[in-house]
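Hi R.,

As promised, here are both runs. First protein below:
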Amino acid sequence: MFKKCLLLIFFVSLSSYSQVQTVFFVEDVDTIEVITVNFCVNDEAKISEVNIIPEKSTYRNEIEIKKLINYLKGIQYYPDSKLRNNCYDSTFDFVNKKYENAKLGVSDYSKCRNFRTGNYLYDDFRFSDTKIKRG
């Protein structure tokens, strides 16, 4: 139940990130695995180079990683984009397909009340120093 509540909050927070797809649904993970890449945008506003950052990645499926790299290399930003001629890090989430259309049932709402108060930590390296205090 705890994982369902956290996943629901997680997906809501990702819904307005950017024009680049950052969540991919796959069958070979239990819940969520991540890949962090460093990508470079050239003068034509196209992603020209993509490098995986292994120490910030947990997903290991080489086939899906290659698909991600090809997807990124096909991205063209607006010609006047301020992203041109620079490199950036970005993290992509690989989520189990069973969560793609998952919804928390009304009967389970009461189970989430336990998380209204308390101290919590994210189980994600991107937010390892973040503490959540609800009270």
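And here is the second one, sequence first, then its structure tokens:
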Amino acid sequence: MTTLQYPSARFPGPPAAALEVPDGWEPVSVPGTALAARVADHGQPTFLANVVLRFERRAGDYTLADALEEVVEYAEAKPRGEASEPFTASFGGHEYSGRNVSWVDPVAGTVVQAHLFTLLPAGDLQDLVQITGSVGGANATDDYRTVQQVIQQVTVTPGSPGQAAQDTTP
């Protein structure tokens, strides 16, 4: 019988990531994310600028063009949704492809998101890294500059193959 192990060379663990945030931001637990932070919530009824980092294991033939097309579909499903032309950015040792999207939310007003993607090796698959920065409401213009700065401080490294199982029999 063969023992399969996670993490291992065949099934590497998830990427590691770090996110630096400015004073006045706080961590947020969001299902389906690796890291998330936002402007501290002081109870004001306003949209809180935020940055979210997700990892998703994808097939080896998945491309950044596929991710960018999914963002277009996401935007088109929103009220008055629009997607920008693709762009590229380089930071944290990786090249990212991205698109900005916007839509009109009935409560927050215009919401703008920057979606950036890169692919990391993960055995015979790959990990899609998605960084999303969101702004909206009256502070959107100022918050967008801050969100861009936060995004550019993100660092990610491919998942670890883990440690080999140790024989613990005496």
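A quick note on the second one: The two ends are 22 Å apart (CA to CA). Let me know what you think.

Best,
J.
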